[in-house]
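Worked problem 6 (solution included).
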Amino acid sequence: LLYGWSGTHGEAQCVGVHMAELVRGVIDNTSSVCHGPSILAIQEVGHPGCTLGVVKNRADLVIYWGSNPIDAHPRHLSRYTRYAEGFFLENAFRDRKVIVVDVRKTETANIADEFVQIKPGGDYAVLSALRAIVQGKTDTIPRTVAGVTREQLVRVANLCKSAKFGAVYFGLGLTMTRGKYKNIRNAIELVSELSRHTKFTISAMRGHYNVYGSNEVNTWMTGYPFGIDFSRGIAFYNPGETTAVDILARKECDAALIVGSDPAAHFPRRCLEHLADIPVVQLDPYPNATTAFCNVQIPVAVTGIDAVGTAYRMDGVPIRTRKVLSTDYPSDREVLLKMYALMQEAQER
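Solution. The predicted structure is:
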C-alpha cells in the first residue's frame, strides 16, 4: 500500500505511481477519506467551476456549504471572498453577500449575511428543495425541510437567482455526511439550474496543499484519481474496495509506504491495528502520530521551502513552488527515485 501523496509535489507523485505499478501494489491519496465523493460526483455530472481569481473579481454572492473557512482555510475569506476587493467589486464587504449552510453555528456563520442551520444528514433534502424552488415549484415544498423553514429556503433561492455571479464552496460537512457523493451531485445540479438564471459556479474546499495535484497526476498517468490497484497488472479502480481504509480493514496489504500524510491520526482503529502489524516506511519532514509505529522514518525537505516542485492550487491551477532555504535533507522525489532504482534491481535478480 502506497498512501498519502497530498503533502508532496507532483514530481514525487509521478515516481509513486511507477513504484505502485512495479510492485503491483495499490496507490491511494488522502482524498479517499476527504473529497473522494466530490470526484465521484464530478465524474457523473461534470464540474461547473472556475478559478479563485474569477470569484474574487466577479462573485457578489458566495455560499459556504458544510465548511468553516475561518478555521480550516484562514486566508480564503481575506484573499478571495468576504474581505477581498475585486476588479468589479470595489467594496467587497458591502457588495458581496455570504451565505453559510451548516449543522451548527460556526465562526464563519457569525460573519455571514444569511445562516442556514440544517439538521445533520439533511443536506440532500435541502438541496432538492432549493432546486424545486429555482424551477418554480415552491408549492411542492413542505413548511420545513431538515429544520429549515420554507420562507428561508425561498429567500436563499431568490438571493441566488438575483446575484450577478454566484459561487458555492463546499467542505467535508457535505462530502462526509449521509448521502456522500449524491449530495455533491445534487449541489452541482442545483448550480446547473441556477446557471439558467445567472452565472454560478461550484468548487470544493480542498485540504492538503497538493491533494488536487495528487488526483491530477494519478488521472493523467492511470486514468483514475485515487485508490488505484495494480495487482492485476493493469490499473483497476473501485472506491470502497481499492481505497486505503478498506484494504487495511480487510488486512490485505503486507507493507505500507506513507508519504506526506498521517493516517495514524485519521484512520479507524481497525485499520491502524493492521498498520501497526506490518512494515511501514514513512517519508515526512516532521514526526507525527504515524511516526510512533513506523519501522523506517526518512526525513525529507519541505516542498516550497527547502525544495522546488509543482503543486496544484485548490482550483486546479498548477504552481511551480520555489526553494527559499537550503537544507541537507533530500527532496521526496530524490528519495523515491533511489528507492525505485533499488526496487528495479531487486525485480531483475
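Discussion: The mean pLDDT is 95.
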